[in-house]
Amino acid sequence: MLEKIREGSQGIVAKTILVLVILSFAFAGVSSYLGSNTGVPAAVVNGDEISANELEQAFQNERSRIEQQLGEMFTALAADESYMNGIKQNVLDRLIADKLIDQAANKLGLRVSDEQIKKAIIEEPAFQTDGKFDNERYLAVLRQLGYQTTSFRNMMRVDMTRRQLLNALVGSEFVLDGEAKQLAEVQGQTRDIRYLVVDSTPFLSTVSVSDEEAQSYYDANVSQYMSPEKVSLEYVELNAADMAKNSDVSDEEVKTYYDENKAQYQTAEKRLAAHIFVAATDDDSADKAKADAIEAKLTAGEDFAEVAKTDSDDNLSAQEGGKLDWFEQGVMDPAFDEALFGLQKGQVSSIVKSEFGYHIIKLLDVQASQATAFEDVKAKIVAQLQEKKALDVFYSLQTKLADTSYEIPDTLAETAQAVNAKVQSTALFSRDDVPAEFNNPEFIKAAFSDQVLASGLNSDVIELAPNHVVVVRMKKHQTAGIMSFADVKSGIVERLKQDKANDGARDKAAEYMAQLKAGNDTLTGASLTTLAKLGRFNQDIDQAITNKAFKIAAPAENSVTIDTAALATGYAVIVVDKVNEAEGINDNLIKSLKQRIAPQYSEADYRAVVASLKADAQIEYPVAD
Asked: Cellular location of this protein (predicted)?
């Protein structure tokens, strides 16, 4: 907990500490301090309640964390009620685990004294000023978090007590060198194999599936053919982009806009610069002396380009006599920019200091600002004026759309009439196959909401994109159910044909395997592919072949081991000729593996402890009446 405060104090203290500490306490299962436990609890663990309020707060914190992590992707996921329910269940499981750990710590008599809490607070950097505890700062942080000192200390007591038990259980986990070495040897092992693939595709033309077989498969696997919930919608749509296409803009309006906004159609003045550059070093006085010497040469009449070639630290431009490029005002370093745009053509500046060093600048040429011809920008102005007119109309109609659809919620006919649009409709779709033009999280959420489906009302206004909105209502609703045999028959037939073709490939692979086991390496119509030192994580061949090759027993001396592996469309025959020991195992690899394995052991220990406590616990999930 205090680590979270410490991290927060390094940035924007107030907001960051607030977020991190609340998250920490929510996940630590101590948010019950923040409110009273009223109503039906979310769970009762050995007689101790986890309030619905506590669960909701922890769930909202977890929701915020995932949203921050996933960004816009989370909006689509949040529209899936089952996904969000799964997250909420995970949060409840964590709160139950925390409660069990707290109870175990209490049963073992683990305690945290007032002095320990006081010491932790005093030593916490977030509560210090200039390395010393600052009581005013401490109280200010608590006030900002909305806590009283008593409740804050109680939270710390729970958190620190729990850490005592967890550190004792999982904090002492370690990995032996032998364990890490054994894992390295297993992971680094390679195998010399030969293999052949029997493709099932040629067998497809020789198999057939009867109606009875298809029906039997359907009857035995009917749970696989659940149809998702679907809905067909009526909708009224307003899109400013479509309105803009139909907006009338006269030539006079376009010309007037051009004349009134000529400044928008001016190309910026550009200047061609050259410079002699003295790069900044640790000795600024020496840098300035060098720049003064260069300036003296120019004052004495030496050619700017020649001096640039010999004295400039900018080697690239020096080759061109200091010539740089065309610049618009505001592009270069402010000091450089000001000097360049204060010169007359051919004039040389005095010494200019920038963050990079010293410059002496010469203005080689000027490209004056020019107005873009009316005809060159006419189309652009027309589009701008069309958009402006369309937006004016759009905002007015959007208000009517919202008002009318709300005031007359059981039909869209009047709404369409009010906004001079038409009622359109969609085909049936599920959450997973939304029409492309409506594939928007807010649209999906509204389409399957209780407001639209259960109450049969118009939805609120849904923004599909900037200046593009829609209101929907249910036209047809199809609940989730079992798809008919007729609808899925063709897919079943194809699947069973593939299964039969795979059986044919399997039988052929068995024939090849029998020949190989009999010592016949010359196979009719097939040949083995040799692969030396196949690694466990090889991605160059079918993963099923690799996985099987490492499951086959190592061959005895002067022999091989042979087996088959099922592939997506066929079978493979695999011959293991040799098992090669791992190479390159050293102390660094073993150390790295130990660091990677230790947290996994600790996590396994923690889960085992929680599972053991759960097995002996009485956990109830009361349901509200």
From this structure: Cell inner membrane
Determine the Cα–Cα distance for residues 357 and 340; give it in Å rounded to an integer: 16
Task: Tell me the residue length of the chain.
Answer: 625
Choose the weakest-confidence range: 182-191, 250-259, 568-577.
Answer: 250-259
Helix residue spans in 312-471 (DSSP H):
315-318, 334-340, 374-407, 413-418, 441-447, 450-453
Question: Mind listing the pLDDT tens digit for each residue in 312-322?
Answer: 999 889 989 99
Whether 464 and 443 have beta carbons less than 8 Å apart is answered as: yes
Mean pLDDT confidence for 495-501: 94
Q: Residue 73 and residue 86: Cα distance in Å, rounded?
A: 17
Does residue 20 carry a pLDDT above 60?
Answer: no
Sheet containing 462-465, strands listed edge to edge, beginning at the edge strand earlier in sequence: 424-425, 230-239, 468-478, 462-465
For residue 284, which phi and psi values (nearest 5 degrees)? -65, -35
Q: List Cβ<8 Å contacts ≥24 apart for 387-395.
A: 387/240, 387/244, 387/247, 389/244, 389/247, 389/249, 390/240, 390/241, 390/243, 390/244, 390/247, 391/240, 391/467, 393/243, 394/238, 394/240, 394/243, 394/467
Cα-based torsion angle of the residue sequence 159, 164, 165, 167 in order, rounded to the nearest 10 degrees: 110
